[in-house]
Write a structure and sequence with these properties.
Oligomer: single chain
CATH superfamily: Lrp/AsnC effector binding domain/regulation of amino acid metabolism (RAM) domain
Largest sheet: 4 strands, antiparallel
Shape: globular
Domain Transcription regulator AsnC/Lrp ligand binding: 6-77
Structural class: alpha+beta
Pfam families: AsnC_trans_reg
Strand content: 25-35%
Organism: Knoellia koreensis
InterPro entries: Dimeric_a/b-barrel, Tscrpt_reg_AsnC/Lrp_C
Radius of gyration: 16 Å
GO cellular component, one term: cytosol
Number of helices: 3
Helix content: 25-40%
Distance between the termini: 30 Å
């Protein structure tokens, strides 16, 4: 699974509509409305790198109200949930 974090700048008057439209795209698993340098953050999860182009450049960037994007590709996922699961399986080195 390949994960991309896409920072989205959107037309301020259309942020809720843009978020809903992006959330409906195949390959997009979550969309967050955020404060900071971006208006929205979309999590894209696909099986192959080629699919990133289809989802992000082919569809997400074309949603009406999207002004621009900045995409980050994740190399590895770390989460509290994953660590707790590993420790509960006895993988903590004991």
């Amino acid at each position: 699974m390949i994960t991309a974090i896409v920072l989205v700048n959107a037309d301020v008057d259309r942020i809720p509509e843009v978020a809903e439209a992006i959330a409906e795209l195949e390959g997009v698993t979550e969309v967050y409305s955020v404060a900071g340098d971006a208006d929205l953050i979309a999590m894209v999860r696909v099986a192959e790198h080629e699919q990133l182009n289809d989802v992000i450049a082919g569809r997400l960037n074309k949603v009406q109200g999207v002004i621009g994007t900045n995409t980050h590709i994740a190399f590895r996922t770390y989460s509290k949930h994953d660590l707790e699961a590993a420790f509960s399986l006895g993988l903590d080195g004991d």
